[in-house]
């Protein structure tokens, strides 16, 4: 299964391992980062409809149809951290073995260059293996730290010299994507499902609605909302930024006027789920200081952890906090989903309580 995942991801970018290694070249760090990212998710949830290269069979596998159909309504799910770590180590071992095997058939100079490349690249690759406790959830996905959140917002700013995109429209749109994800905690599918008519023109509010099989959505895999319909209030400044994007940027793209979706590509077509993943992959590659685990879903974890911190500052009871969170995230009243998204906050509170207990011990200072 791991090798199948490896080869499918390589096929997406037309990489043939044997050909590459016979040329005396190893995989690049960005290519390995893509493998590391894919290793976080369930294979059945990943889309491989474009994996076949030119000239491959035109026969459509029924499993692909099922995968596309399910992807339209189910967001990509993460595997356990232990599974992710195991996949990365297995991939590294296989790539090391195959490059060494192929390298032994090459001239001495090429063999040496391939060995040096592979050693450096695999060291960077293995650095992404998460630490896994035998018992618990250490290493499970968390939100961004305050420092990483500030670094992300600084990099994504349209006027930042470190912003990885060149075109003004793309810079502003991607900045708005990150801001809306951090501000609302919505999923990428919910963001891409937003239509301009979902925005309140009088108040700083937007509606997140379920639209299964929407006739006005031309995307083959339609992003969708998994949770309940809900209304989300924004700060006026953020709402002004949304309308500024619509009136000053989006409106200038004639093809975009045919589509109701808020977030579009620079050719006017509604943006795809894969494009959101690409945006965060480009951010990670362009800005090594950002976490290698940075994805759109980490924004959701970040929102939930900030929500817990604010609830604590306001002195909300657990019951009130839970009800408020469930309403904001579109969860059922009795949902326990918050536990998945508040690990960093819960861990910090646990440490604080544990230290308080230790204060009761009579241990003299040396």
UniProtKB/TrEMBL annotation:
Molecular functions per Gene Ontology: DNA binding
Pfam families documented for this protein: Phage_integrase (PF00589)
Polar residues: bias regions: 327-340
Record key words, sorted: DNA integration, DNA recombination, DNA-binding
Annotated region (Disordered), positions in chain: 325-350
Gene Ontology process terms (BP): DNA integration; DNA recombination
The keyword Cytoplasm belongs to this UniProt entry's keyword annotation: no
Tyr recombinase domain: residues covered: 139-355
Similarity annotation: Belongs to the 'phage' integrase family.
Name of the featured protein: Phage integrase family protein
Source organism of the structure: Paraburkholderia eburnea
């Amino acid at each position: 299964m791991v090798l199948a995942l490896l080869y499918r991801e390589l096929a997406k970018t037309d990489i043939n391992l044997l050909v590459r290694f016979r040329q005396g070249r190893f995989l690049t760090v960005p290519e390995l980062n893509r493998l590391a990212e894919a290793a976080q998710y369930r294979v059945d949830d990943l889309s491989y409809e474009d994996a076949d290269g030119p000239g491959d069979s035109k026969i459509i596998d029924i499993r692909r149809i099922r995968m596309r159909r399910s992807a339209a309504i189910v967001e990509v799910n993460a595997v356990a951290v232990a599974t992710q770590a195991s996949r990365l180590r297995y991939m590294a071992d296989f790539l090391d073995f195959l490059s060494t095997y192929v390298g032994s058939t090459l001239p001495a100079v090429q063999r040496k260059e391939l060995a040096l490349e592979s050693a450096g690249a695999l060291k960077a690759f293995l650095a992404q293996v998460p630490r896994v406790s035998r018992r618990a959830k250490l290493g499970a996905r968390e939100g961004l730290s305050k420092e990483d959140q500030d670094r992300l917002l600084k990099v994504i700013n349209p006027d930042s010299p470190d912003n990885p995109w060149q075109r003004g429209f793309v810079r502003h749109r991607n900045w708005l994507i990150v801001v809306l994800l951090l501000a609302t905690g919505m999923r990428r599918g919910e963001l891409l499902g937003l239509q301009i008519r979902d925005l309140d023109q009088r108040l700083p509010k937007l509606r997140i609605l379920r639209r299964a099989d929407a006739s006005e959505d031309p995307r083959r895999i339609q992003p969708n909302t998994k949770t309940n319909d809900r209304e989300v209030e924004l700060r006026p400044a953020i709402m002004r930024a949304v309308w500024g994007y619509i009136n000053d940027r989006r409106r200038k793209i004639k093809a975009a006027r045919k589509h109701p979706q808020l977030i579009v590509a620079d050719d006017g077509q509604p943006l795809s789920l894969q494009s959101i993943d690409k945006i965060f992959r480009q951010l990670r590659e362009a800005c090594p200081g950002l976490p290698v685990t940075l994805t759109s879903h980490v924004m959701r974890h970040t929102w939930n952890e900030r929500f817990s911190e604010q609830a604590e500052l306001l002195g909300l009871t657990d019951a009130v906090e839970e009800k408020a969170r469930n309403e904001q995230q579109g969860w059922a009243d009795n949902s326990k989903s918050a536990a998945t998204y508040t690990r960093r906050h819960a861990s910090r509170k646990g440490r604080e309580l544990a230290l308080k207990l230790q204060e009761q011990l009579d241990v003299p200072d040396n």
